[in-house]
Task: structure prediction
Amino acid sequence: MKSSKGETKTKRYHNLKGTNQVAMGSFNELLVLQLIREHGELSKVEATHATGLSANAISTIFRSLENNGLILKGEPIRGKVGQPSTPLRLNPDANYYVAMKIGRRSFELCLIDFVGNVIAHKEELQNYPTPSKFIAFLEENLDELFAASHLSKGDVSHMAIAMPFELWSWADDFGAPKDELAAWKMFDLHNAIRDIAPWKILIENDGTAACRAEAVFGNHRDKQDWIYFYIGTFIGGGIVLNGSVFTGRRGNAGGFGPMRVPGIEGGNRLVDHASLVVLERMISNDGFGLHALNQHISDWSCFEPHLSNWVKRCSDALSKAIVSSLSVLDFEAVVIDGAMPEEVRLQIVQQVETNLKKTDMQGIVKPAIEEGQVGRLGRTLGAAAALISEEYMLDQNNLLRA
Result:
């Protein structure tokens, strides 16, 4: 494989191998499909090398995936000798997904294709989410979403919703009335929207969803074990083990908000510092409204000096949380993302890097600290990524337990 500058790069593949037994055909197809997703495109020779399958087996798999509309042929690459190599890539139109985020400050609704392109997008800000507001938003925007695209409801077979679990437990932390948020306790979401959204509905924790978006649509094939922080109104995130998102028993692994980070004024939990609700409160003293951060999507310089103070506070808390996480599992990398401008995210990553260089790391190894790649739409993209993962990707953690 050659980069745009002409130098040769060696592709790194994960450790899963295929089997030439006929009964394992579906496993092998998922394996090849996942490799194509990870690398952007893959030739038959590369797939043979990566999987350990025979050339005939790879040809059969490629033909099956192509016949099912999941992959497309690229332009042949001609070498000096032999037959030209034809790379295969994912077909963006193979599947479409309705994806929604129920956030603490906003609702988002998207149509997303098989490779993560956002075809249509609707968003509505609110002070806090309730079941009735959620239903009203969906009723008012779903048809408009399809009208803004070339698709119809019949082109979609699944919908996924990313949302915080136990919304009612955190009312005080973002200034919402407890009695109204308590309505989520007994709310049967599937039943409430079955006439509005006539698809199979998958629900995933919003932090886990953002992590899944990063794993599915980001470029992280160089690592197998990493943690992911997503800074939204609250901080959340996820854990990736053996190259696959690890959700835990209740689907809430990587819910970093309650993690203790002592020694920082203002609270002893990570959520008390590394959350946008904290910056929200800080800038309110200068007259900015509740939704100012969402209304200034690309440039937060108007929030100085509070922004710089918050970046330091957030980074200090994240640094402590990273050290605690490393004492449990030996992660090779930490990925930091959030609903913020890219320059703010970069400042946090750089400050965390600086902090860790000054931190006593006895007994643990400092991980790589990296910027996330999905950004503001991470949780909504993650809802679609959850559907893709469920149907078209291998869960290496489940395979290893089998």
